[in-house]
Amino acid sequence: MDHQLLRSTFAVVERRAEHAVTFFYSHLFWHNPGVRELFPEDMLPQRDRLLAALTHVVTHLEDPGLAAYLGQLGRDHRKFLASPALYAAVGQSLLAAFAHAAGAAWTIEAEKAWTEAYGHVAELMLAGADAAAGAGEPAWWDADVVRHERYGDDLAVLTLRPRQPLLHLPGQYVGVSSLRVPRVWRTYSLADAPRPDGTVELHVSRIAGGAMSTALVEETGPGEVLRLSAPGGGLVARTPPGGLRTYICAGTGWAPVRALLAEAAAAEPDLEGRLFVVARSKEYLYAREDAERLKERLPGLNVTYITAAPRQRKDQATERLLRALRACVRWSAHDVYLAGPPGFVAEVAEVLEELGTDPERIHHDTLPSVGRFTTRPNTAAERLLGPPTPLWHDPEARAPRGASRSF
Ligand SMILES: NC(=O)C1=CN([C@@H]2O[C@H](COP(=O)(O)OP(=O)(O)OC[C@H]3O[C@@H](n4cnc5c(N)ncnc54)[C@H](OP(=O)(O)O)[C@@H]3O)[C@@H](O)[C@H]2O)C=CC1
After folding, report:
1. Of 5, 288, 299, 347, which residue is least crowded by CB atoms under 10 Å?
2. Which atom of ligand 1 is nearest to the CA of 280?
3. How far is the CA of 225 from the centre of ligand 1 (A)?
4. What is the ipTM of this complex?
5. What is the pLDDT of residues 328-356, one digit of tens each?
6. Where in this chain does the record put each FAD-binding FR-type domain (predicted)?
């Protein structure tokens, strides 16, 4: 496969990304009646996803991990009912869209290289899907809601009982779908290590105007069924026994950190480390009771809770956290596990590096780059191409940092 040719044609298509994606979906839906029904009503996040996946492929052509990534993507696409016929239809529409967007750059050689590349991608994705099916893994897990607890105006903890065992590593996330918002999937971290009773817990923060988070926080209740997709994500324990570690979480970022700590409490109760729990205000410090219980099982864990002082600026919590982190020592000896809003993760990771933490040892999920910490160029195509998987809540939907929020 001619990697250079793939990259150079993609660079041309990328400049007209919005146009190419619109053409792609119009072509796909026009030529394949019935396929539109497989996609959500709101196609905007979907467009980002396609481009994010394509960008990942083009930027990782020489990466030996690419085959595994595509296998996982195929495994995950079983929840969308992606059949071999759909993969073929997508391939045809993708090549038509690329030809349309690339103009004169779409030579016979370019078409040949992309046909071959897409064939390879589809083959690896289908192999991932087949392997999961062969291992008896369902395309998704139906899960009964058994408990729904509210904290503050816009936070809920949902306890679910999947109808088939859901194997996962502490710290991983799942896709969640509800019949209340058809065909939409959103990612949430599982908030515990696997439990003996098989239940799992999701922590959901409602986003103004967010259909799924509103449905989960305000409308969903016990007795309802949600769908969960295969667990994924790399925010999992990576510290060798005896190694020092720091956990830092904000808001519902507590969920994966709690799972990691529950695992450590069982496997390594003499662990030495520090935990920082950040919340926008006292009412949202819903983690406190659980953290206290974990601290009893992990006496070597130093716990700090940080919120903005009453009636203070809303961004004071992060400032207080950064001050507390600067007061700590031996950052070069710690693994750091980080979870929370994308801007928070970017800001804290930057400060940790300044303090001497090895960037390889700062562990967090892949979140979209946003706000003033964005390092990518900010062209229209770049904005469209920006969000990598998993698709987290749209941070733009939140009140700007520092602006007054009503709660
Ligand atoms: N695996 C992961 O990484 C997970 C990530 N998440 C993400 O975490 C978020 C949770 O939302 P929610 O519970 O409502 O959190 P909040 O909006 O309540 O934020 C929690 C804290 O994070 C700080 N914060 C928020 N935005 C920024 C920013 N741009 N820069 C610096 N600090 C910031 C706030 O500090 P201040 O008060 O100083 O503004 C606040 O105290 C969601 O975006 C969700 O997608 C959730 C679960 C797992």
Report:
1. 299
2. 41
3. 27
4. 0.95
5. 999 999 999 999 998 899 999 999 999 99
6. 138-238
